[in-house]
Amino acid sequence: MPNSKSSILDSQTDGMVWRAYISQEDCISCGACVSHCPNGAIYLWNDKYSVDTGTCHFVQSCFSSCPADAIYPIQVPWNSI
Questions:
Q1: Main-chain dihedrals φ then ψ at residue 7, nearest 5 degrees
Q2: Which of 15, 55, 58, 63 is the most exposed place for a label (fewest CB within 10 A)?
Q3: Angstrom distance (rounded) from CA 15 to CA 38
Q4: pLDDT digits 0-9 by tens, 38-60
């Protein structure tokens, strides 16, 4: 994985694509990330926020909006989204 979140590009590598992931342990349920997602990929689930990887286009605007720094880049298989 690249060293910083901001250095990652929304690219497909070996059948994988980058998407945002919200750590359920770190999420403080403030909802700050929701308004920063232009694709509406963030939703409330079990009192914490999650990302729909099929809707996420890895714009990355949610990363800087999170006061708990709970949003991370992950790679998922492109055929699973």
A1: -90, -5
A2: 15
A3: 25
A4: 999 999 999 999 999 999 999 99
